[in-house]
Write a structure and sequence with these properties.
Helix content: over 70%
Order of helices and strands: HHH
Number of strands: 0
Structural class: mainly alpha
Keywords: Membrane, Transmembrane, Transmembrane helix
Length: about 90
């Protein structure tokens, strides 16, 4: 997470530096605007990822624990395997 934020900040810094040194160069201005756009897309994608991950964690935490299986005791371990069912 921290690495992604540093990457976004680096892209924004690179775009600002290119824009500052672009002068009359249209190509450098276009590259700077493209870097700024990529940084914005990555930032929005990262925010969607973070929100989705927190919703998944919240959903997992609120999930009720299933009741224990009544057939999974000592008697189930000692019983013989059941034959397969006949097709109906």
């Amino acid at each position: 997470m921290r690495g992604s934020l540093f990457g976004i900040a680096g892209l924004l810094l690179a775009a600002a530096v290119l824009l500052a040194f672009a002068g009359d160069s249209v190509a450098l201005k276009a590259v700077a605007i493209a870097l700024f756009g990529v940084a914005c897309v990555v930032a929005v994608s990262l925010m969607f990822f973070v929100v989705g991950r927190s919703e998944d964690e919240e959903r997992e935490a609120s999930k009720p624990t299933p009741p224990p299986d009544p057939h999974a005791g000592e008697a189930a371990r000692r019983s013989r395997p059941r034959p397969p069912r006949r097709p109906t």
